[in-house]
From TrEMBL, chain A:
This is Membrane-bound aldehyde dehydrogenase [pyrroloquinoline-quinone]. Residues 210-299 form the Aldehyde oxidase/xanthine dehydrogenase a/b hammerhead domain. SUPFAM superfamilies: Molybdenum cofactor-binding domain. It comes from the Bacteria. The keyword Oxidoreductase applies. PROSITE patterns: TAT. One of its GO terms (molecular function) is aldehyde dehydrogenase (quinone) activity. Keywords: Oxidoreductase. The keyword Translocase does not apply. SMART domains: Ald_Xan_dh_C (SM01008). Its EC number is 1.2.5.2.
From TrEMBL, chain B:
The keyword Transport does not apply. Signal peptide: none annotated. Its EC number is 1.3.99.16. It comes from Enhygromyxa salina. It comes from the Bacteria. Residues 1-77 form the 2Fe-2S ferredoxin-type domain. InterPro entries: 2Fe-2S-bd (IPR002888), 2Fe-2S-bd_dom_sf (IPR036884), 2Fe-2S_ferredoxin-like_sf (IPR036010), 2Fe-2S_ferredoxin-type (IPR001041), 2Fe2S_fd_BS (IPR006058), Beta-grasp_dom_sf (IPR012675), Diverse_Oxidoreductases (IPR051452). The gene is iorA. The keyword Ribonucleoprotein does not apply. This is Isoquinoline 1-oxidoreductase subunit alpha.
Length: 762, 152
């Protein structure tokens, strides 16, 4: 379903890649630019000029350029559905061309659950524009009114005279038509959709099941060498000495290359170290093991994550900086009939896509072409240009398939490494990260501490809600010394808490960063939703109420919440708060739906418990119910999971269910096992299973998902399922055995997997 | 050292260190990149191939250990069971990113070859060596049951 060999033409570079299945982009640099320019360069979402995304070929192929990265969310299929819908293309003729990284596409950072959210309208317009041009071209040829012609499934027909022409036959004429203005394009009615909101089959899966398709790890170029890097144990550690004499004895090793130590901030710079370059991957890995290296410690050499956890917990026991305020929390706590307080801790996590970071670079004079599994090809282009001190125009980034991303592959340090090493050895180089590299040199999900306090009135109603959060900030990776939780992180489940309580306050504490801190699927929502949704169940328990009813009561009556009214700076995930309001009715609806799916309130066997959590993130709403069984020895079984998602208009219903399943299990995996620790600034987990992720025997056998039918504009889909999973699980554990888990993960890497049930019952 | 190995029915004469893991011979020498690297320590299953029909983690199998044996990879696995597995995988759209799925499919085919109607416990036992970070486990389980039905 994709290009097998494509001529790439960007700027001055032009060459043929003949690898069996490299997927590359074209159609930049105005190859198909319409006469008279495009009136569609600025529509909502970006440039909707059809030539940017669509090429009609004489053989009837509809080549659709996907400018987002395919990492399992089935974006190839979704982007093609949107364009093919408005173009009235025949789905069987659709082929995907993967775009290179280039600013003309607008934002390409496949991150933040925004591919459909940002591009839905724009791609519809692009498809509708070309459909209009095809109809006009046919009308001109037949000398009839354009309004009497209709484009349907790859053909334009003139019903009155029963004439028809295929898109391939009309392609050249259509391209000669002026591009219509947005106002001239009539988008299809929802009722007429044949691809959008349908379970269209994946364009990638038929190839995946044959082992086809090119991931970053699979790139092969003629005369290519393979490199791995020994990086400093701590970030900003310096190399003192290298002895590579044993390394060079390893058969297949070609040479070693010393890389410079970066200066703070870390940004997307290579970490430095020594690259071992070899004729094959195994020789490079073996050669690295034979290196004798001495390092000067980096500034984080005193970092001990357990000590840090204690410091962070102490921080949230004291008042912090107020970031959102409604009413007077202090006074309301004072007056309350009962107060409840709880503290929560979530450790560092790491992405561990099963394909680790990997990139291939090939130089031609002072220009470099890269092939890499990147979520953000434009950021990769910048990172390579910066590291190699060349203009961005000299860098081409081809995007391969991504063997998982989860946020790691939007940080392109590894692409810059590949370019530097390839230049040093004057040969094409594939720069491979091993699993050990991925775990020890990541951009880690921030460790976090939170304290919540609430005041209940004599009826058990919540009248005061105080949330304190402290965590090392993502900003520290980009600005040395940044220690203040940003609005961008607080909007992820802290500044946007939509509860109907008269007094509400958010406070933050500052924290230093000692590892490279980065974003991981759903980011700060992971710890904020864990704390807030756990605390709701704790309040319900204190009030002697049903947790689901109490959650609905806190969500309150149908209304729109805007945290900007209460002192927060809230950007609503980059989406308009008018189009994508924080709508409590939708949050309540997913909560009720998930509860109904799970038959909430039914009699349960002894040792079973149900937990519920609901959370809005990335302009979508997800509620999850988990049923667990806990036996007397503390053994935990996840009996069932029920999740409901309202993501507005969903482009591919089947694949949205896939994300709801996978994103929920991703959250459960983090909660059960996810933990990265550091001593002396060095990450302790070397490989699986010390870094533990969910396996088949640990996954729930029963899971049901519902996607709420909605006409609302598209919200995110890839990340919203993750946040409510962890608190739904820990709430279920509490319901089953009385054990309240406030520190994650639930289990360690030793696989003992016993809950401390003894004496837990309150 | 010169060795001769049989992969997907074809004989290949190669010149490598006999301790080289089969994974890197497949990927770097034979250009059979469907078999994936994920951890290098037999913990994730992305590199699963069949050696004489049995599942084996290619990342820890020295290439010398497969001389005189039949190696089958995702590119070559065939027959009614493999067909049923691929069909089920496609009909359910099991994979997300797909990187681990070569290994998942090789493990599933081996399971269904051994046990025609696997129970959920059989699936847990046979598939727990294959990590899927996208966590497609719900669909993998469903697809194995479906393939078992189709293969009968």
């Amino acid at each position: 379903m994709s290009e097998t060999a494509t001529r790439v033409g960007v700027g001055r570079r032009n060459f043929l890649v003949t690898s069996a299945s490299l997927i590359l982009g074209l159609t930049l640099a105005g190859k198909n630019a319409a006469a008279g320019g495009s009136p569609l360069t600025i529509v909502r979402g970006g440039d909707a000029s059809p030539d940017l995304f669509i090429e009609l070929r004489p053989d009837e192929t509809v080549a659709i350029t996907c400018h987002r990265s395919e990492m399992g969310q089935q974006i190839w299929t979704a982007m093609a559905q949107i364009i093919a819908e408005e173009l009235e293309a025949d789905w069987d003729r659709v082929r995907i061309v993967q775009a290179v990284g280039h600013p003309r596409y607008g934002d390409q950072n496949t991150d933040g659950s925004r591919s459909v959210r940002y591009n839905f309208h724009r791609l519809r317009v692009a498809g509708g524009a070309l459909r209009t041009m095809l109809e006009r071209a046919a009308a001109k040829r037949w000398k009839v009114a354009p309004s009497s012609c209709r484009a349907v499934l790859g053909k334009v027909t003139h019903p009155a005279t029963k004439r028809s022409l295929s898109y391939g036959e009309l392609a050249a004429d259509a391209r000669a038509q002026p591009i219509p203005a947005e106002g001239e394009i009539v988008l299809k009615k929802r009722a007429d959709w044949r691809y959008i909101a349908k379970p269209v089959k994946s364009l990638t899966v038929p190839r995946i099941v044959r082992g086809e398709g090119t991931f970053g790890m699979d790139v092969q170029l003629p005369n290519m060498l393979v490199a791995v890097i020994a990086r400093p144990p701590q970030v900003f550690g310096k190399l003192k000495s290298v002895d590579d004499s044993q390394t060079k004895q390893v058969s297949g090793v070609v040479e070693t290359v010393t890389l410079d130590t970066p200066k703070p901030p870390a940004h997307f710079q290579p970490l430095g170290g020594v690259a071992v370059v070899a004729r094959n991957t195994w020789a490079a890995i073996q050669g690295r093991e034979m290196l004798e290296l001495k390092w000067e410690e980096g500034p984080s050499a005193n970092y001990d994550s357990e000590t840090f956890a204690q410091e962070l917990m102490a921080k949230v026991r004291k008042p912090g900086e107020v970031r959102r305020r409604r009413g007077d929390v202090a006074a309301a706590l004072e007056r309350a009939a009962e107060t409840v307080a709880a503290e929560y801790y979530v450790p560092h996590l790491v992405h561990s896509p099963i394909e680790p970071p990997v990139a291939t670079a090939k130089w031609d004079g002072d220009e470099v072409t890269c092939w890499a599994c990147v979520q953000a090809p434009q950021a990769a282009r910048k990172a390579v240009a910066r590291a190699c001190e060349i203009p961005e125009d000299n860098v081409t980034i081809n995007v391969t398939w991504l063997g998982g991303g989860f946020g790691r592959k939007s940080k392109p340090d590894f692409v810059a490494e590949a370019a530097l090493v390839a230049r040093a050895v004057q040969a094409p180089v594939k720069l491979v990260w091993t699993r050990e590299d991925e775990l020890k040199h990541g951009y880690y999900h921030a460790v976090s501490a939170q304290r919540l306090e609430a005041g209940l009135d004599s009826e058990g109603r919540c009248v005061a809600f105080l949330h304190r959060t402290a965590f090392p900030v993502i900003g520290s990776t980009f600005e040395a010394g940044a220690d203040q939780p940003s609005w961008g992180e607080l909007r992820l489940g802290a500044s946007d808490t939509p509860f109907a309580v008269p007094n509400l306050q958010l406070e933050t504490g500052r924290a230093d960063a000692h590892l490279r801190i980065g974003w991981l699927r759903s980011v700060a929502n992971i710890y904020h939703a864990f704390a807030v949704q756990s605390f709701v169940a704790e309040l319900a328990h204190a009030a002697g109420r049903d947790p689901k009813d109490y959650l609905l009561e806190l969500i309150g009556p149908p209304r729109h919440v805007d945290p900007n009214d209460e002192g927060a700076e809230y950007d609503n995930y980059g989406s308009s708060i008018v189009e994508h309001p924080i709508d409590t009715a939708r949050l309540a609806a997913v909560t009720t739906t998930a509860a109904t799916m799970a038959d909430w309130g039914r009699p349960l066997p002894k040792g079973h418990g149900l937990g519920i959590a609901a959370h809005r993130s990335f302009a979508a709403y997800v509620a999850t119910v988990v049923e667990v069984a806990v036996d007397e020895a503390g053994r935990l079984t996840i009996v069932g999971v029920w999740s409901a998602m309202d993501a507005g208009t969903v482009v591919n219903t089947n694949h949205a269910h896939s994300q709801l399943e996978g994103g929920t299990l991703f959250g459960l995996s983090n909660a059960l096992y996810g933990q990265i620790t550091a001593k002396q600034g060095i990450v302790e987990q070397q490989n699986f299973p010390a870094w533990r992720v969910m396996r088949m025997n640990e996954a729930p056998r029963h899971m049901e998902t519902t996607i709420i039918a909605s006409d609302a504009p598209p919200g995110g889909v890839g990340e919203p399922p993750t946040p409510p999973a962890a608190p739904a699980l820990t709430n279920a554990i509490f319901a089953a055995c009385g054990l309240r888990v406030r520190r994650l993960p639930i289990f360690g890497p030793d696989r003992r997997d016993r809950l401390a049930v003894e004496g837990a019952k309150q | 050292m010169k060795l001769s190995i049989e992969v997907n029915g074809d004989r290949h004469d190669i010149d490598v260190d006999p301790e080289t893991p089969l994974l890197w011979v497949l990927r770097d020498e034979l250009r059979l990149t469907g078999t994936k690297y994920g951890c290098g320590v037999a913990q994730c299953g992305a590199c699963t191939v069949h050696v004489d029909g049995r599942p084996r983690r290619a990342c820890v199998a020295p290439v010398r250990s497969v001389v005189d044996k039949r190696v089958t990879t995702i590119e070559g696995v065939s027959g009614p069971t493999a067909d049923a597995v691929r069909k089920a995988w496609v009909s359910i759209d099991v994979p997300q990113c797909g990187y681990c799925q070569s290994g998942q499919i090789m493990s599933a085919v081996a399971l269904l070859t051994k046990i025609r109607r696997p129970s959920d416990e059989d699936i847990d036992h046979a598939m727990s060596g294959n990590i899927c970070r996208c966590a497609t486990y719900i669909r993998i389980r469903r697809a194995i049951h479906q393939a078992a039905g189709d293969a009968e």
